[in-house]
Amino acid sequence: MDGTTGTNFRYAGGITAAVFLMLLAICVKPAGGWADWKYGLQTWITGYAGQVYIPVLAWQDEDAEGIGEWVRANALGWFPLISYAEGRAGRESLLEDEQTLAVLLEAQASGEDGAPESGDADEGGGSGGNQDVAVPAIDTSIEKLRDFEYLLSNFYIVDSSTTIGADQLNADDMLGRDMTIDLTEEGPKVLVFHTHSQETFVDSTPGDPSTSIVGVGAYLTELLNEKGIETIHDTGVYDVIDGKLDRSRAYDYSEEAVRKILEQNPTIEVLIDLHRDGVAEGTHLVTEVNGKPTAKIMFFNGLSRSRTNGEITYLKNPYIQDNLAFSFQMHLAAETENPGFTRRIYLKAYRYSLHMMPKSLLIEAGAQTNTVEEMMNAMEPLSEALYDVLISS
After folding, report:
1. How confident is the model at residue 64 (pLDDT cuts 50, 70, 90)?
2. ∠105-107-111 over CA atoms, to 5°?
3. What are phi and psi of 359, to 5 degrees?
């Protein structure tokens, strides 16, 4: 009876210690690095398990320290865990719960549209440099593009919030989808709008929309109309409430307005939500096109799928494959004419404004560190790429 009681106490003590250590591991991080800490913990657990469950086979060092001594000896080397990586993981885990739809939608609506603000991470030369160096040509032969790993590594950045596979990034499928518009029927074909109308640039004039992303959209509209692609420009403001910047429902408000415009203009086939990116202040996304300093652009796709739980059913988008095909064809057209003009296509978990029409683009043109001139210059090669995809192809 006494022996059994003693054994039970040993089992209970082992379980208690293990639970304590698990909680401690969640709450603290060792100053000497995870490797040393994990090694010490693993060594003690292995030895203790051997002593409790297979004492005959366990070799026990007479001088080995107990768990209390081990914790006491290492406790001073631990500090509270305030880590970006763990914090980010926590936020991503929060997104997986369908009960947190409001949080997810707020994340979609607020701030910039999701590209990391650590600079232009996908560009050679790193953040902070002027991107006006020669860009090596990328092999765009169909044989290369059919290689999923090659396609992914050379044309895309996949945000940590989502995943994508070869079934969606299929070059034959994306290039085989017809993105041309019907010119036999009169009426506008393209709508340019801005979910975040208050985005400005390094030398924008406060209070002057012509020097903001809205002015850039006006110039793109002008260029497309000159090329024979009838385009209208929505200058609605969806990210200001009661005179203050508020993006919490910007995508809802812009969708409501866009759907009304589509009802009034049933000939529209293309939606372009034009933004500018947000980057580190030392980053300047610029290249040279036709001898002009030109802001670089990036096509952006939302996949409505999270890394952990898969499809986000409450952010439905029946046009994801068409969206992917459109942005890919646009990227190829732009890079063929002006290598280095486009950044890699960014893929993220949310939906944004891409679910209203098959031919939908979300474009991040330049960033807050670009000048108005660089932004305006970028609309010229962008309009040429749109012409190539919507008409020439």
Report:
1. very low
2. 125
3. -90, 75
Q: C-alpha distances in angstroms, 174 versus 36, 136, 166, 346?
A: 48, 24, 11, 16
**Residue 160 near residue 88 (C-beta atoms within 8 A):** yes
- CA dist 254 and 251 (Å) reads 5
**Domain boundary assignment for the chain:** 2-80, 101-392
For the chain, the average pLDDT equals 79
User: Is-contact 162 328, C-beta < 8 A?
Assistant: no
Tell whether the torsion through CA atoms of 317, 321, 322 and 326 is positive or negative: positive
**Residue 205 has which token pair?**
């004039």
Nearest to 280 by CA among 389, 87, 118: 118
* Alpha-carbon span 192 to 201, nearest angstrom: 19
At the top level of CATH, which class does the domain 101-392 belong to? alpha beta
Q: Per-residue pLDDT tens for 346-369?
A: 999 999 999 999 999 999 999 999
Distance CA(330)–CA(386), nearest Å, equals 7
Report whether pLDDT(319) > 70.
yes
Total residue length of the chain: 393
Q: How far is CA 200 from CA 38, 206, 289, 371, in A?
A: 48, 9, 22, 9
28-55 confidence digits (pLDDT tens): 444 444 544 455 555 555 555 545 444 4
Q: Global pTM?
A: 0.70
The 3 state secondary structure assigned to the chain is CHHHHHHHHHHHHHHHHHHHHHHHHHHEEECCCHHHHHHHHHHHHHHHHHHHHCCCCCCCCCCCCCHHHHHHHHHCCEEECCCHHHHHHHHHHHHCCHHHHHHHHHHHHCCCCCCCCCCCCCCCCCCCCECCCCCCCCCCCHHHHCCHHHHHHHHEEECCCCCCCCCCCCHHHHHHCCCCCCCCCCCCCEEEECCCCCCCCCCCCCCCHHHCHHHHHHHHHHHHHHCCCCEEECCCCCCEECCEECCCCHHHHHHHHHHHHHHHCCCCCEEEEEEEECCCCCCECEEEECCEEEECEEEEEECCEECCCEECCCCCCCCHHHHHHHHHHHHHHHHHHCCCCECCEEEECCCCCCCCCCEEEEEEEEECCCCHHHHHHHHHHHHHHHHHHHHHC
